[in-house]
Amino acid sequence: MRILIFRHGDPDYEIDGLTDKGKVEAELLARQIKSFGIDEAYVSPLGRARATADYSLKELGMEATVLDWLKEFPVHFDANIADAETRSAYKNELKIGADGKYEKRIVWDMMPSYFAEHPEVFDVNGWRESEIAKASDVVEVYDSIIEKFDGFLKDQGYERDRNIYKVINGNEKVLGFFCHFGITCVLLSRLWNVSPFVPLQFLAMAPTSLTEIVTEEREKGIAIFRALRIGDITHLTVGNEEPSFSARFCERFENEDERH
What we know:
Elements: E1 2-7, E2 11-12, E3 17-18, H1 20-32, E4 40-43, H2 47-60, E5 65-66, E6 76-77, H3 84-87, E7 105-106, H4 112-117, H5 131-134, H6 138-155, E8 158-161, E9 164-167, E10 174-179, H7 181-192, H8 197-202, E11 210-219, E12 222-232, H9 234-238
Parallel strand pairs: 1-10, 4-5, 4-10
Antiparallel strand pairs: 1-11, 2-3, 6-7, 8-9, 9-12, 11-12
């Protein structure tokens, strides 16, 4: 079985839709979509993912099933219940709201200086007891998502057994997911048995990029999931379209025109 994960196009977060560039990216993806041989399509309920999927679904002549758990990883850090050291993980991100309290921040946008001193966030189990986790809803939300993901895989014929998946009814279907960067990292962390902060901190996937995961059965009845490609943007290259900078931070700190 193959899982193809497509990130949404360049986002306009204010309207939960696509920018003009994002629409071009989605159209270029749609031009290549038939070559992937997708058997079933699934989409996040959020507007930017659905808008991206619409271009490809029209080309495929199929509809997508909306999966609520494919929406962007909705977890936030609450600086108001964290100590000063833990707040330093988001020192470039924290803002004071009109009520005089810190506004909540996306939990994975932490500073490298923090995780360099706190390796527990990268430990497969240790991240759950980290100070970051204690000041956020990351564990609760993560567990809810992976429970639903494992249930989905079981329905597809692959049942979770500790760190592997038992093959109950193996297949060679191709499943297309149209979703988001954060949730993609969560799904990868579950398949690979690593802390979600590992892919969240060290991967970047440009808008409309493709991440391809395939099952391997080197032993009868046991499947693992391996990546054939991560963040592939061939469709943009073919269309002479530069990838969006969204999902990345500044290449050099002095680059004022890039996200810090």
